[in-house]
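User: I'm new to structure prediction. If I give you an amino acid sequence, what do you actually give back? Let's try with this one:
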Amino acid sequence: MIKRYYLIAKKYFSLGANNKKLLAHLFISATLKSITLLLIPFMASLIIKYVTILDLKMTLVSTFLFLSASSLYVLVHHYNYNAYSNNAAYVHNKLQELIMDKVTSYDENFTKNISTSYIINTAFNDVGKVQCVADLAFDVVTAFIAMVVVIVIMLSVNLFIGIITSVLVLLTIYVVGRNMKRRDYYLVNQRREQDNVSSLMGQVLDGNKEIKSFNMEAELESYLNKYKKNRARNYFKKRIYDNNISVIVPAILGIGKVFVYGILIYLILAGSKEISVLVLVIGYYQNIQDNYEKFYGCLNDLSSNSIRIDRVYNILNYKNKNMLEFGEIDNDFISGKVEFKHVSFTYEDVEVMKDVSFKIRPNSFTAIVGKSGSGKSTIFRLLLRLYKAETGVINLDDISIYDYTKEVYSSNVSIVTQKPFIFDMSIRENLNLVDSNHEHQIEACKRAGIHDYIMSLKDGYNTKLVRDAENISMGQKQLIALARTLLSKAEVLLFDEVTSSLDVETSKKVMRILKDLKKDHTILMITHKPTLMAVADEVIVIDHGKVVGKGTHASLLKDNEYYQVLQK
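Assistant: Good question. You get back a string of structure tokens that encode the predicted 3D arrangement of the chain. For your 568 residues, that looks like this:
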């Protein structure tokens, strides 16, 4: 049992969410609280001792010491409460910060291997419980030490009473450990079924239209009932072991109390012990019970929280065979030269890119074309470091993209997607996420061709965009996303089918913007539109993960049969 809780504490502290100074205050205050609590029964027994021998002076002194110890306990308890509050708040904020940082830096496989509902439940529900683990761990240690001290005192009072007390404490710890282990097994299963229910609910919200169209309600209800049934089964099995702990252990300590008090009363009646010793033993036996309740309660919470610690740990220490590491090169003077050298990549046992090589010069516009599933999007995902190439080299300015720091690389390679995501914030707040300088925002919006439209709105840049910007058109949303990308000061801009769902006028506007951006950016665009291929400096043609053509639109039309088929 000791090993198990040691591993729980070790994993918790490995999360890296603690402040040493706050931990020191928490441990010192927990220790002082236990020490002052141990003094009170001893002071009470001294009062009885001197009262029975009619020693008024020592009775008053003992009473003063008793009141002092009680007052000190109140002060230390307040100190411990403040230390806990400060540490819990720090850990809570730090863990959410760490989770946010990890979620935004992991590859695309992360949300496939760890569900969105799992991440959300962990970041908001589990973190709220994990924040108190250090306090629980320190309370367990101090409660155990206090029980050991009390047992030593009991042994000094009477060897037989001390032995009985020791056996009772060890027996209760054994019963608790055995039942907690089984209880936690079913608790893990219960939480898994809760995640299944949360995940299903999220999918129901996302796919509500399809559910109604295809009358899926009954089938989905059966899945929900299955998850609920499994959760209930694990919940009731977990309760069996909870009940064992809450019923058996108090019974053991209650029976032990009868034996201990009975022996002591016999010794007092026999004249070998004073009444003050009875007060001392009653006080310390109660101290054992109180410390046991704290010990068990904290162990119980630690045991329950071990699952939550595991969930946080799984997110912060997520590993994948293609896991990307950032380098140490922080050179931010990027011209925008992109090069693939014999790059191959396999996804889910399918080779989606085979020995791909090409060069893209700075201040150019390159179109990447091919049929759906040919590997075009994989090129972008590799450039965005969402995946890692298994073989070959991908360079930015003749340096491997894996050698740059996260800050430098992410600020120099950016993407505008076919369906960009806009937060439920004002236009200005969405832009603030990249650059809070309003003059820079206006400049970017003017260049993206959206400034005049924004100024025509009643609230201008303070206009609230709701539900992923459903209150504006797709074209306007696309241009705001482009302005956001320009604010990043990225040298390499990736455009993924950005004109596919736009009207003719907005598409022409985007084409004019691209010609302007080419002056100081490297532009790569995935497109199916011949009009964009025609204005590109170079077109790269992809088929089944291979480059099957490179050149201008005119040269490919003349010499490349595959490209000719694509145009038709």
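You can read the tokens as a compact description of the fold. Here is one thing that stands out. The chain has two domains: 2-316, 338-567.
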